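Good day; I would like, with your permission, to put a structural problem before you. What I wish to show you is a protein chain and, alongside it, a tokenised description of its three-dimensional fold. Please examine both parts with care and let me know of anything in them that strikes you as inconsistent. Thank you for your consideration; the sequence and its tokens are set out here:

***
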Amino acid sequence: MIEPSSFVSAFGDTPEFTASKFTTLHYEADTPTDITGGTPSSAVPVKNLFQTDAIALRMRLWASWGLRAPHVAVVNGATW
């Protein structure tokens, strides 16, 4: 358990945007595997944005979190 008043978080004030049209994207959301380049690759569907004439946009916002005080409790051997 964590005491909610001890948990703190902070976020950056300016998001960073980057765009690329020479990126390979993996279109599997549930169980994506690594893009290995083998034949046949087990990571499908994979598309290169250059081949599809598309542009990818990435947004990053820096975040940090932690505990102001060590208010964490651990219970071992509990039977409910």
Observations:
- Residues 15-61 form one domain.
- The first strand starts at residue 7 and ends at 11.
